TrEMBL record, chain A:
Species per Swiss-Prot/TrEMBL record: Actibacterium pelagium
GO molecular function, one term: branched-chain amino acid transmembrane transporter activity
Localization per Swiss-Prot or TrEMBL: Cell membrane
The UniProt record lists the keyword Transferase: no
Name of the protein described by the UniProt record: Branched-chain amino acid ABC transporter permease
PANTHER family: ABC TRANSPORTER PERMEASE PROTEIN (PTHR30482:SF5), HIGH-AFFINITY BRANCHED-CHAIN AMINO ACID TRANSPORT SYSTEM PERMEASE (PTHR30482)
Domain of life: Bacteria
Coiled coil regions in record: none
Chain ranges passing through the membrane: 27-44, 50-69, 76-95, 101-123, 130-148, 183-200, 234-258, 270-302, 314-335
Record keywords, A-Z: Cell membrane, Membrane, Transmembrane, Transmembrane helix
A GO cellular component annotation in the UniProt record: plasma membrane
Automatic annotation (TrEMBL), chain B:
Domain of life: Bacteria
Entry protein name: Branched-chain amino acid ABC transporter permease
GO biological process, alphabetically ordered: amino acid transport
Family indicated by similarity: Belongs to the binding-protein-dependent transport system permease family. LivHM subfamily.
Keywords, in A-Z order: Amino-acid transport, Cell membrane, Membrane, Transmembrane, Transmembrane helix, Transport
Membrane protein topology class: Multi-pass membrane protein
Any one Pfam family match given in the protein's UniProt record, by short name: BPD_transp_2
Compartment annotation: Cell membrane
A single MF term (Gene Ontology): transmembrane transporter activity
InterPro entries: ABC_transp_permease (IPR001851), BCAA_transport_permease (IPR052157)
GO CC annotations on file: plasma membrane
N-terminal signal peptide: none
TM region positions: 6-31, 38-57, 81-103, 110-130, 182-202, 223-247, 267-288, 300-320
Organism taxonomic ancestry: Bacteria, Pseudomonadati, Pseudomonadota, Alphaproteobacteria, Rhodobacterales
Native species: Actibacterium pelagium
Length: 358, 334
């Protein structure tokens, strides 16, 4: 009834190509943005920021990044944790080397550094494909983590081997360090997510995105129609790593504040982000957000139900989480390989015909 | 002979032994990959699961006791018996066959004909699932694994005195070779011989090879694909059990077992995904390579290079020879 394209005339080419062709969707999008920017910052407290919102926003950035590489360009990567570590350490080095420059530039700079490293580890993708590549990216994961552990220059020769985020401000508000307010953490992550998601959406529907998808669907055919695989694959690695690097930098500086590399950016992080995009939906920006939200909320929910509600020990809840996540991956791959995003799409199709489906 | 050379020889020998263990895990991958085209990421967790089940059955632990206690408020932990090792192994084999059947029926039956990368991701899901089940079933603490023939004849551990003595007489320096590694090498050789015999001389083994060769041709001469896949997963489960016993006896049954098994992946890339000799040679190369690298370069760069050496070696190798040492040449048809 209210979810119709009827009466909403697209009279220009631009109108026809918009992201949300249905008016209801457009309004919903602006409402979500308004709530995210205008309402939540005033209500948020430390628990909600640290347990739900900040990790969700950061993982969403990482998931969009990996989705560009895996979902849009078809190159499976198990090195996300390693690339997040590059972002974190690049951010740390920049923060400590140029303390007078705003942290926003450090975060973006960390993204560019990671993009460079990503391209380097993306080079083998020109020769190898599929799970061969997946295993090759494991090299990035283990090598980078080892590097940050063993070379003292990266952690400024600190005795503990950890890196700690010094206090930095944006417009006079602390966004890193112990004095940060919950809403400031939330806002900086939200701003980054909004801008990056907007960039990702527009990249993926433009020339670059189309060449990625052509490579994903069939690389030989793509080559024949004139897509340069070298360019397509390496741009995918670069853009993806840029996103993942910023996520890693935010994860370290804003969310955790202090990081021990093996613990924070281990192989499990790579899998977690991969699971987010499988459950959320490969090749979908909305899917990345949905998957990130799902896997951030699930442990919180399970902990509240099993430990808080039923009084089970924490370790059982942790094991249950593994079982449920693993089971869900398999269920999604069998029943709905396009994930939550596809379910959402089907729902919208149904809604378009509702209440008279025939 | 210079000291360094002697040390290097000892390191090489130890690397060979470690390589045998990598090869053991890699074998399971190759079996499944050849027969069904599934790249089974869960092989390492299967080894962990098998070893935990073995310890649990042997010590008479009640499965899911933590969960049962948490739900019902009871205090059950042990049945109060201690099974003979071989009986426990037999029961574990039955469990692994049951697991193989369940995996085939519940997961891969529904994924036939999907892209390899989807199957790969499904096995990552399976790995998480199994890990959770194993922890929930038997508890996540580190367990000791002893395989004993009789109460005082157990699997040998510790330094091998004979080798220590002999090498001392030869070079004036006794090599440290763990008895367990020698046992593992012998077991691995027996296992490979048994696998070869099985696939060459039995009806099921021939059917398995036929399926590996060509699914459709095998189907047309009346081989049940479903049965063969269950069989292959069972054999892989058995290999996982052997690998789990060896690793478990070496460093205790714990989660890191599945991480060690991750190293079977570069082994495979080096040896080729479809070749059993490749898995063994690849395992040995990685084992020796990482030990020697750590010995020669490790001290200069801060050590612990074993964490990544295998992966980087495989990565570099792949760039020049994508099919691995013994793999079939990858031909792409359009």
């Amino acid at each position: 009834m209210f979810y119709r394209e009827a009466g909403d005339f697209h009279t220009t080419y631009k109108d026809d190509n918009q992201t949300f062709p249905i008016k209801f969707d457009r309004i919903r999008y602006y409402v979500v943005l308004a709530v995210a920017f205008g309402v939540i910052p005033f209500l948020i407290n430390d628990y909600w920021a640290n347990a739900v919102f900040v990790p969700f926003l950061i993982y969403a950035i990482a998931a969009i990044g990996l989705n560009i590489l895996t979902g849009y360009c078809g190159q499976v990567s198990l090195g996300t944790g390693g690339f997040m570590a590059v972002g974190a350490y690049a951010c740390y080095k920049l923060m400590t080397a140029f303390p007078e420059v705003s942290i926003v530039f450090h975060l973006i700079g960390a993204g560019f550094v990671t993009a460079g490293v990503g391209v380097l580890f993306g080079l083998p993708s020109l020769r190898i494909k599929g799970f061969y590549l997946a295993v090759a990216t494991l090299a990035a994961q283990f090598f980078l983590v080892w590097l940050f552990n063993k070379v003292p220059w990266f952690y400024n020769y600190s005795a503990s081997g950890q890196i700690n985020a010094p206090e930095r401000t944006v417009f006079g508000m602390a966004v890193t360090g112990p004095n940060t307010e919950a809403w400031a953490k939330y806002m900086i992550c939200l701003v980054f997510l909004t801008v990056l998601a907007w960039i990702a959406r527009n990249l993926t529907r433009g020339t670059v995105g189309r060449s990625w998808m052509a490579i994903r669907d069939m690389d030989i055919a793509a080559e024949i129609i004139g897509v340069n695989p070298l360019r397509a694959k390496l741009t995918a690695f670069a853009v993806s790593s840029f996103f993942v690097g910023i996520a890693g930098a935010l994860f370290f500086s804003v969310y955790l504040g202090a990081v021990e590399v093996g613990e924070a950016f281990g192989i499990n992080k790579s899998f977690l982000v991969l699971f987010m995009i499988i459950i959320g939906g490969l090749g979908s920006i909305f899917g990345s957000l949905a998957g990130a939200a799902f896997l951030v909320l699930l442990p919180v929910l399970l902990k509240n139900i099993l430990v808080g509600g039923l009084g089970w020990p924490i370790d059982i809840a942790a094991h249950m989480e593994l079982i449920i996540v693993g089971g869900l991956i398999v269920v999604f791959l069998i029943a709905e390989p396009h994930g939550l995003a596809q379910l959402w799409k089907i729902g919208k199709e149904k809604l378009r015909l509702w209440p008279f489906p025939h | 002979m210079s000291d360094n050379l002697i040390y290097a020889m000892e390191v090489t020998l130890n690397g060979l032994m470690a390589g045998v263990l990598y090869a053991l895990v890699a074998l399971g991958f190759v079996l499944i990959y050849k027969a069904s085209g599934i790249f089974n990421f869960a092989q390492g967790v299967m080894a962990l699961f098998a070893a935990m089940t073995l310890v649990g059955i042997e010590k008479g632990q009640v499965p899911f006791s933590h969960l049962i206690n948490a739900v019902l408020g009871t205090e059950v932990h042990h049945f109060g018996w201690h099974l003979h090792s071989f009986l426990a192994i037999a029961f574990t084999v039955v469990v692994m066959i049951g697991l193989a059947w369940a995996v085939q029926q519940v997961i891969f039956k529904h994924l036939v004909g999907q892209e390899p990368i989807i199957l790969f991701m499904a096995t990552i899901g399976l790995a998480y699932f199994l890990e959770g089940v194993a922890d929930l079933m038997w508890g996540s603490e580190i367990k000791n694994l002893d395989i004993c023939l009789t109460s005082n004849l157990c699997m040998p551990q510790g330094i091998n005195e004979a080798i220590d003595q002999t090498t001392y007489e030869w070079f004036g320096y006794g090599f440290f070779i763990d008895n367990l590694d020698i046992t593992a090498t012998i077991v691995a050789m027996v296992l490979v011989a048994a696998l070869v015999a099985f696939s060459q001389y039995t009806k099921q083994g021939r059917a398995m090879r036929a399926v590996a060769d060509d699914h459709q041709a095998a189907l047309s001469v009346g081989i049940s694909l479903n049965f063969i896949w269950v069989l292959v997963w069972s054999v892989a489960g058995f290999v996982a059990l052997v690998a789990g016993i060896m690793w478990g006896a070496k460093s205790g049954v714990q989660f890191s077992l599945s991480l060690i098994a991750l190293k079977a992946l570069p082994v495979l890339m080096l040896g080729g995904f479809t070749s059993i000799p490749g898995a063994i040679v690849g395992g040995l190369i990685i084992g020796v390579g990482e030990k020697l690298f750590e010995f020669a370069i490790g001290p200069m760069v801060g050590g612990a290079t074993e964490n990544w050496f295998a992966y980087v070696l495989a990565l570099l190798f792949l760039v020049f020879r994508p099919q691995g040492l013994f793999g079939e040449k990858i031909i792409e048809r359009v």
